């Protein structure tokens, strides 16, 4: 609603005026009445050229005071005076007039159509104009010639002026140049509590001795500066309004020639502005002291203001962000689509709220809860965006902690039953999809209740905590260990076969080997019963698997505790054997229970030994003879193969050295190398060390690596084999034909020998397929210039067949079974002096 200011005739008050330019009347009865009254009178308005000149000067003052364009129009919207731009801007000006045909008094009434807004400066400007008008009016109202004194004013003029200023709520008074009150309005007299007669003709010393000095000095200040000045602001009490804010403006009164006539003072109630100021201050305080960060950007996205909390949260000061784009806070965590959605909501709905990850000045990312609102201008276009946000890092952390608590056991911090069920669901799905196997091992501590009963729950907790750490250390990072009850733990792991499950059990059992030292100083020994169920054999869903693992565990308990059982009994037996063997293997290494046998490799034409293959033998006091085909894979999965393999290599080299020292020509000694050995860093250096320790020539050593092992991590294998080849060691591909080497890959390998797997030799010459395969391998070897040796040759027919295919060497029972070194004299080329002394039968004992 346009706010209209006007000066009206005595008896009328400040009122809203009709909005002339927009041709509408304000819905205010009183204002309409006043308008009618004006309608009656404004016909008689006479715009004297001098009056317009006066108005023009007033407008100049107003323009200077407000820094805005202003103009003056009559009630019909006719522009009377004003700047061009002002004419365009201002749409409502009212003019009032005096009485009769010859107006004695013309008062300019300015209507300011500002779309409902009237700034403080503008109001002040109008007031200044009013002050000045009064001075000029006095000059125009029969006071002329006034020369230097107000006292020359005639009674009519004074009465008229009195009437005029009485119509204002403001306190208005005029003092002459000697500081004597010449006129004062009713409003001032009421406020000062003195009748007019007691004020006019008195000085400040007489009227208000306490404040006289300050009044006089502010009068002097206004005269000195020659312009209207605000001299005081104070709180007062009004009978009707209560507490009010007053502001006093004083202006020197000059005649047309610029001579001082006196001082005019106006005191007005500025409570409205003070209230607005307070509101602003309050808003500023709220803005500044808000714990939420506030960022205001203009419509182009440039930051125009931030509050203190913004700095507290982001670490960026005001100077560092003003004028910048909020992108500077970007964490890089959100996709473009995220921001596109946010902008769409801002532009269509005017607001957006959600969570954003941003980056602090120190580089750390943090989550924030943010609400962004668009602020619109008069033209309904966005002027600003206000973002209010809070740092929700702590909230997020608590949420994460709560979630962790919901899915983890508070004592051990291991996943709990709920988490286990969730993970199992996922893992089972994945395993089903990829055709994989899983094992679920339920671990129940034997007689744990006794610990709680005897030592109390605190000690019981200590033991469980330590146990959980040990169990956790024994499982791999891909597996999951959970605590699902007081003394019940569950391991969920991926397995390739049932042996893997047994191995997992054996690793878990190690957690119980050492005693548990508790804070009382006692050392407690614990055992556990474990039940294993495997997927998919023993169940296809988490519940069934858990139930079956539990049943297996119960059986293990019944069998005397400290043992484990598979849900399938047969597997239990196999697993027990495996675990027994595993622990026996540990013992075998320590007690030197292994020994080597050697099997000659012969030239198929001459039937002379070209070398020997070293083969390990193990005779356990309880298990009896165990084939390497059985215990080598167990040693591999138990992590013992490295030690065993190194032992074999050293023994073989030592034996070779002994033969060489005895003057025998032994050709090459072949030693089997298991996959894990080949992939272990430092293997080449270890071989080198053994050669140097034993003094066995590298050229007499042949390392046999199975084809399938060579296919694992081929790049690394090629590198290792190259380095071994560089030492002068011969390299043979064992069990050739059973793996899936591509010819391309084979070409890259630094190998010298192909060993045809005995499965292709077995039914020769009758099996035509095997014959074809053997023939192909031999042909390929020749093409690649590799030596080819056939394994497992048991009959002359096989030997002849292979020889006919072009195979040069063979190994097998036909020529000799693996035998102890001292039994192989017949195959050693004796030194000349000792020739004929050593003999041994071809069918030497294997073991
Ligand atoms: N039926 C039949 N068999 C014959 C004949 N000639 C030799 N053999 C057997 O065939 C196997 C040849 O060894 P391999 O293929 O390397 O196969 C070996 C090798 O893979 C592994 N092995 C043996 N000793 C070691 C060792 O010291 N280290 C490693 N890593 N593995 C070894 O155990 C496997 C089995 O070894 P062994 O039981 O000694 O069995 C040996 C040998 O006794 C024959 O004419 N007919």
TrEMBL record:
<dbReference type="InterPro" id="IPR013656">
    <property type="entry name" value="PAS_4"/>
</dbReference>
<dbReference type="Pfam" id="PF13426">
    <property type="entry name" value="PAS_9"/>
</dbReference>
<feature type="domain" description="GGDEF">
    <location>
        <begin position="436"/>
        <end position="569"/>
    </location>
</feature>
<dbReference type="GO" id="GO:0071732">
    <property type="term" value="P:cellular response to nitric oxide"/>
</dbReference>
<dbReference type="InterPro" id="IPR043128">
    <property type="entry name" value="Rev_trsase/Diguanyl_cyclase"/>
</dbReference>
<feature type="domain" description="PAS">
    <location>
        <begin position="157"/>
        <end position="226"/>
    </location>
</feature>
<dbReference type="InterPro" id="IPR052155">
    <property type="entry name" value="Biofilm_reg_signaling"/>
</dbReference>
<feature type="domain" description="PAC">
    <location>
        <begin position="225"/>
        <end position="282"/>
    </location>
</feature>
<dbReference type="GO" id="GO:0071111">
    <property type="term" value="F:cyclic-guanylate-specific phosphodiesterase activity"/>
</dbReference>
<feature type="domain" description="PAC">
    <location>
        <begin position="352"/>
        <end position="404"/>
    </location>
</feature>
<dbReference type="Pfam" id="PF00990">
    <property type="entry name" value="GGDEF"/>
</dbReference>
<protein>
    <recommendedName>
        <fullName>cyclic-guanylate-specific phosphodiesterase</fullName>
        <ecNumber>3.1.4.52</ecNumber>
    </recommendedName>
</protein>
<dbReference type="Pfam" id="PF00563">
    <property type="entry name" value="EAL"/>
</dbReference>
<dbReference type="Pfam" id="PF08448">
    <property type="entry name" value="PAS_4"/>
</dbReference>
<feature type="domain" description="PAS">
    <location>
        <begin position="284"/>
        <end position="325"/>
    </location>
</feature>
<dbReference type="InterPro" id="IPR029787">
    <property type="entry name" value="Nucleotide_cyclase"/>
</dbReference>
<dbReference type="InterPro" id="IPR000700">
    <property type="entry name" value="PAS-assoc_C"/>
</dbReference>
<feature type="domain" description="EAL">
    <location>
        <begin position="578"/>
        <end position="832"/>
    </location>
</feature>
<keyword id="KW-0973">c-di-GMP</keyword>
<dbReference type="InterPro" id="IPR001633">
    <property type="entry name" value="EAL_dom"/>
</dbReference>
<dbReference type="InterPro" id="IPR035919">
    <property type="entry name" value="EAL_sf"/>
</dbReference>
<dbReference type="InterPro" id="IPR035965">
    <property type="entry name" value="PAS-like_dom_sf"/>
</dbReference>
<dbReference type="InterPro" id="IPR000160">
    <property type="entry name" value="GGDEF_dom"/>
</dbReference>
<dbReference type="InterPro" id="IPR000014">
    <property type="entry name" value="PAS"/>
</dbReference>
<dbReference type="InterPro" id="IPR001610">
    <property type="entry name" value="PAC"/>
</dbReference>
